[in-house]
């Protein structure tokens, strides 16, 4: 069980694609900062195609970038307090910077 944290835009780096290539069904994905651009139509299908345990996005980061905070029922929009709780639930975290 690994929490993968992607913080860079998929328009500027391959981190989201690289993450999705190694993520497993028991892992979770957390999009923060510019990583929330992964929720745009161009990239959301790649996330939806994966059998990922949980997908989270920081609500304030989505709002700051004028993105839908709940693009699909599968993506949970969370605040920073919830992020801390999620990080505590996963024994391992992999940051994609």
Structural features, described:
The protein is an alpha/beta fold. It has helices at 15-22, 41-48, 59-64, 80-89, and strands at residues 2-6, 28-31, 54-58, 75-78, 92-96. The chain has a five-stranded parallel β-sheet with strand order 4-3-2-1-5. Strand 1 (2-6), helix 1 and strand 2 (28-31) form a beta-alpha-beta unit. It is globular, with a radius of gyration of 12 Å. The two termini are 20 Å apart. The model has no long low-confidence stretch (mean pLDDT 94).
The low-confidence parts are: none
Round the Cα radius of gyration to an integer and report it: 12 Å
Q: Quote the average pLDDT.
A: 94
The N- to C-terminal Cα distance equals 20 Å
Could you name the key traits of this structure?
single chain, 97 residues, alpha/beta, five-stranded parallel sheet, 24% strand
List the helices and strands and how they pair.
Layout lengths: L1 E5 L8 H8 L5 E4 L9 H8 L5 E5 H6 L10 E4 L1 H10 L2 E5 L1
Parallel strand pairs: 1-2, 1-5, 2-3, 3-4
